[in-house]
């Protein structure tokens, strides 16, 4: 079972959109896929068409062993999701106070590892306790980078945060950073300069695939549908298909790059 976290401490960079559509692409390729919504805003949960009224028990109850996996998990026919809700905020302190912190999520996932090929974790946009348990639980993490100055500055802070966690759990690896809402054909000097700088610093950790700005991605989320079902011929579908393909190549070569 490969556990991948989609992370960024800045909001609005395409983190949830990326988690949703990478997960959908993996499921459509035949992989048994579980999505985990670790953000109390529950954007990923809603993106798959589940309203807050349908979430009786959130992922926090599974992590804290207050509820069985079967009592929490939801399915949309394509993949499964451990949903979130605003009530997750109240459970974060209990998670951080647990004796096994920050290995809470890793221990919980070990119980179901035979059920899935892939687990995709959508993390909150913060350097929080929930982000910490996601990084400890994952084998690799991926960071969406919007080519704006604050997003670029935030990337450095996040990489330092992840490096500190690696001292506790040295099994995690930066799978890669990829650009969102970016098109090299559009003349935006600052955007191009920031992407070039990130690519130079990260070298082979900077993914070749970029996600272009595409209204179909937002429309699909609003309808609770992944981009491949909503607009399979769109730029968004093509970009996330190519991104997922590149991610698969990287995680399959994990041993060679470690």
UniProtKB/TrEMBL annotation:
Start and end residues of each AAA domain: 1-170
Gene3D superfamilies (alphabetical): P-loop containing nucleotide triphosphate hydrolases
CDD domains: ParAB_family (cd02042)
TM region(s), chain numbering: none
Range of residues in the leader sequence: none
SUPFAM superfamilies: P-loop containing nucleoside triphosphate hydrolases
Family matches, as InterPro entries: AAA_dom, DNA_Partitioning_ATPase, P-loop_NTPase
Source superkingdom: Bacteria
Protein name: ParA family protein
Native species: Rhodocytophaga aerolata
């Amino acid at each position: 079972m490969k556990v991948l976290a989609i992370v960024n401490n800045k909001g609005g960079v395409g983190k949830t959109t990326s988690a949703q559509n990478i997960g959908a692409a993996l499921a459509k390729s035949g992989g048994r896929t579980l999505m985990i919504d670790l953000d109390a805003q529950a954007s990923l949960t809603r993106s798959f068409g589940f309203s807050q009224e349908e979430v009786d028990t959130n992922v926090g109850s599974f992590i804290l062993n207050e509820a069985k996996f079967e009592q929490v998990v939801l399915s949309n026919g394509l993949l499964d999701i451990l949903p979130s809700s605003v009530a997750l905020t109240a459970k974060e302190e209990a998670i951080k106070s647990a004796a096994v912190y920050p290995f809470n999520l890793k221990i919980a996932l070990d119980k179901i590892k035979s059920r899935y090929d892939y687990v995709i974790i959508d993390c909150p946009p913060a350097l929080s306790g929930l982000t910490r348990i996601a990084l400890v639980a994952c084998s690799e993490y991926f960071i969406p980078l919007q080519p704006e100055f604050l997003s670029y500055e935030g990337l450095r802070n996040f990489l330092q945060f992840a490096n500190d966690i690696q001292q506790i759990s040295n099994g995690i690896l930066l799978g890669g950073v990829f650009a969102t809402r970016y098109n090299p054909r559009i003349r935006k000097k600052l955007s191009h300069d920031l992407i070039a700088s990130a690519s130079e610093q990260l070298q082979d950790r900077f993914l070749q695939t970029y996600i272009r700005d595409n209204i179909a991605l937002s429309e699909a989320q609003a309808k609770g549908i992944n981009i491949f079902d909503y607009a399979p011929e769109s730029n968004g579908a093509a970009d996330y298909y190519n991104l997922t393909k590149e991610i698969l190549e990287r995680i399959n070569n994990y041993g060679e790059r470690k």
